[in-house]
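Researcher: We're teaching a course module on how sequence relates to structure. For the next exercise, students receive a sequence and then see the predicted structure as tokens, so they can try to spot secondary structure elements on their own. Here is the exercise chain.
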Amino acid sequence: MWQKLDSVWRSWSLARQFAVAASLVLLPAMGFAGTWVGKLIEDGAMRRSAAAAALYLENFVEPAVQELATNVRLSEQNMQRLDAVLQDSSLKRRVLSIKLWGANGYILYSSRRELIGQTFEPTPSLRLAWLGQVSAEFDNLRDAENAGERALGMPIVEIYLPLRQRGSDRIIAVAEFYEDAEDLRRELTGAITKSRLMIAGLTLAMLGALFAIVRRGSRTIEVQRAALEGRIDDLTTLLGENQKLRQRLQLSSGRATEGTEVFLRRLGADLHDGPAQLIGVALLKIEDKPALLEGEAPQSETRVILQRALNELRHIAAGFAVPEIEHASLRSALATAVDRHIQVTGTAVGFEAVGLPAEVSAAVKLCLYRVVQEGLSNAYRHGGGVGQMVWAGVEGGRLVVHVTDTGPEKETEAQGVAMGLGIPGLTDRVESLGGTLDLARCPVSGTRLSVSLPLPLPLPSIQRQVVRL
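Model: And here is the predicted structure for the students to work with:
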């Protein structure tokens, strides 16, 4: 249960938590303060009423009880004198009844004659009066001697007044009298109600002001928390993307290392099987002394062999040389790649360029040049150069190049190695520019190499490397 309450509490906003907590603290405190202030008002009113009544009655009652300084009972004459005092119109409007108490709860006099001479248990207020304290309170009229006052059915103030021997502080009797408290009760109720309303108003105003401040702070915290959570989500996404990029970088690095090794082995094989063999044959021709002595002329044959070796070296080096396309347009660069392929292979290639951008970076031109070069090379090697076509244009806000052929697929082991080296290298080159590469093969309809690069295109600078033989 506590865990559920804690979960609900934590799900609330700070403003709501403050409102609930402050209400649980301030509302009971407000009630207590209202009760306490009301009690202070009532006590103050009782003291003022008791003091006024005591001052008023002391002048009428005290002279009639002076004989109690020497006697334990009041004479009939003094009782009649007290009856006459109570019949006074001004006093009768205020005082409903009166009792004179002697020691040990003995009633010396009462406006109700049947109580005279009876003894009752002294109340706490009566004991305090014998100690010299004037007290007043709203009486609940539950004591046995209050049956007559209880029958009146009205709010009554009970006042105890110590009566002293004239000229000394000796208390010779205690006067208990009852006043009509209807007006006093009404005034007290109004004053207490006003004080409680004022306390309630101040408390609610303070609570409202604090709630407004806390709510504003809570909203600020919630906005900042939402922003922070959004940043954390973005950071988490970026970390995931960085992790993927790191993995791709590692994969690309591994590919590059593996491709370099394969390329070096292929280059070594091409140099060994091509130009090296031809140069070796030429050297053998030159060293054939008997043939020279017989008057043969091997120079022309040797020249042909060396020329073939030089052509082989130039053909191999052509794959490394960056063509002069840095200052050409993209369309011209792609057309150059198509023309070079036609010159080398003697096959027909269709070329169409639609809506190409006027300016792109050198890296993009070189990348797409290599794409066309590799795509046409693979089309010639694997498809026999049948139905070769190059299309370049803009689709969906991206720069797209398609290299297709319609020849049947044929793949030897050496050709598979060449294809395996070129496509991964092209993939790494295209992805480095934010693009994608797709290779689709079909035994019936041929092969399609597609590359897509984003627009606008980045403009990284590249260094040109020219190999000359």
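Model: If you want an answer key for the exercise: The radius of gyration is 60 Å. The CA atoms of residues 30 and 348 lie 99 Å apart.
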